[in-house]
């Protein structure tokens, strides 16, 4: 059984956060340290530590991440200009919270995807 992270407490509303969307499968809240004018984390409500732990059972929840990302991007007014969706996995990516999460980042030009 994987160890819970702070994101489980956010999902259960046991600690404060700026939740902007929640349903039976996913929760979206603003990143505590935003890297752009819009920086939202969209997470499955069930604990999946990394993308390496994904199974077919998770497909509905993980698909929902994209539906919700598109909805939030429209609401934030960044859909047409564009934005970036990022999901880090393990050490080389810099993953810090081991409950998978999609970063929705936008509101300014983001530059090249990969640092050289
Ligand atoms: P990672 O590096 O794991 O892909 O991203 C983790 C993200 O979670 C970081 O952008 C970090 O700012 C954010 N974060 C970490 N702890 C909290 C928290 O307690 N509340 C919120 N809203 N965001 C957090």
TrEMBL record:
InterPro entries referenced in this protein's UniProt entry, alphabetically: Histidine_triad_CS, Histidine_triad_HIT, HIT-like, HIT-like_sf
Pfam families, A to Z: HIT
Enzyme class: hydrolase
GO molecular function, one term: hydrolase activity
SUPFAM superfamilies: HIT-like
HIT domain mapped to chain residues: 6-115
Entry's EC annotation: 3.9.1.-
PROSITE patterns registered for this protein in UniProt: HIT_1, HIT_2
UniProt motif Histidine triad motif: location: 99-103
Record's keyword terms, sorted: Hydrolase
NCBIfam families the record matches: PRK10687.1 (NF007965)
Annotated protein name in UniProt: Purine nucleoside phosphoramidase
Species this protein is from: Xenorhabdus griffiniae
């Amino acid at each position: 059984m994987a160890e819970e992270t702070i994101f489980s407490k956010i999902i259960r509303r046991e600690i404060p956060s700026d939740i902007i969307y929640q349903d039976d499968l996913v929760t979206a809240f603003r990143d505590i340290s935003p890297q752009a004018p819009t920086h939202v984390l969209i997470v499955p409500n069930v604990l999946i530590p990394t993308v390496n732990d994904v199974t077919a059972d998770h497909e509905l929840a993980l698909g929902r991440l994209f539906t919700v990302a598109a909805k939030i991007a429209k609401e934030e007014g960044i859909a047409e200009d564009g934005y970036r969706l990022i999901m880090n996995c393990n050490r080389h990516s810099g993953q810090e919270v081991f409950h998978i999460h999609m970063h929705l980042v936008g509101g300014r030009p983001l530059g090249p995807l990969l640092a050289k």
